[in-house]
Amino acid sequence: MEALSLFTQNKERKWFFFIISILFLFNLLLHYLDFKHFTKHEVFSTKATVINIYPKEKYDVLKLQAKDFTFFTSSVDSSNIKRFDLITLFIVSKDINFYSYLKGFYAKTFNIQKLEKDISKKELIYNTIDSQHKSQEISSLYSALFIATPLHTKIREFSTKLGISHLIAISGFHLGVLSFTLYFLIHLIYSKIHQRTFPYRNKKFDIMCIIVVILFSYLLFIGSPPSLLRAFLMFIFALFLLRNNIKVISFETLFIISIMIIALFPKLLFSLSLWFSISGVFYIFLFIKYFKDMNKYIQFFFFNFWIYFAMNPITHYFFGTLSKEQLISPLLTILFTLFYPITLLLHIFNEGSIFDSSLLYMIHLGIDSIDVFTPLWLFVSYIFLSLVSVINKKVFISLNVMMTTYNIWLFYFIF
Length: 415
Fold this sequence. Notes:
This protein is α+β, with helices and mostly antiparallel strands. It folds into two domains: 39-117, CATH 2.40.50.140; 162-412, no CATH class. Helices cover 61% and strands 11% of the residues. The strands form two sheets. The protein has a six-stranded mixed beta sheet. Strands 7-8 form a two-stranded antiparallel ribbon. The longest helix is centred in the first third of the chain and has 29 residues, at 10-38. The protein is globular, with a radius of gyration of 23 Å.
């Protein structure tokens, strides 16, 4: 049976966009009311959790998570404060506007006091990961991979120079690997139970429902990173579409999920990680649309290289770091699909240090890099061609010519 379209009439689309618009405005209003409460007085008192600490020469920058917002502040004396601590402080809120409140802001604070609290489950897991490694750098790498904690400066610089930041920041890629791993493990256990107890049920659907519950719990536990939130909602939506014989891999589906996320969580409109995640899925769909008939073995390797080169004009508009070693990033992406679930299982069984020496060797390799940024005119032109490529194959060919030319120009600087 041929898969159906999500909307069969323009009237349905209009109603959908009307409801989404109302939902967006309603949630935006809620944020505005929170903002008015926050700025009602010149000083706002709150509790916050320390997400990360960035040491500077004369002070430390703290990234803090309050109940309704995330912000940065500085402290000249934070020697007694560490990550995951609960603190109370006063924020000077008079100069903060609504745009900054939504986007995330820096604020002056005073009277920072550490509060006593019970150790959280996330902190407990962080400590469990940390106890398996002698190096803080490696501990930071794995805790970022598994529970979305901020990276050690050395690891962040290394991943940027090597072009593997997308592998460390938890996203849809990780959700996909986790889903396949969970499906394999649950299938081993559930198959016998299913056969003996209720063989009349749809086994695959039951397993997917179990996976949804596990992934949702995991999403909440690590604080719902925007890229993972996008992936999870697409995962749920895909299950719904499959059950109703509606096209899953479509640009309309991606667009709908994207605007639904923004409508539900307006602050994510300013999340660069969310837009990178959406862009990545967009180019995956574009690849599937035009290269679906390619030989499967060639496709497997070509896919990672094409996506990497397709994203370069976008990523280099925001982040200019470039090195020769980034050319092996697509190969590392392939290897990561094995590395991620294996190291996760190793940490569960308290054997997480197995790859430490190899990872430390790689991290401390000297990688030379330079900064090369995509010009604005090229960035805009590339986005335009990408969007038009959805409906026009000739434009897609032009996009590939532009992409190839750009990447030759880009790596010319490093060679």
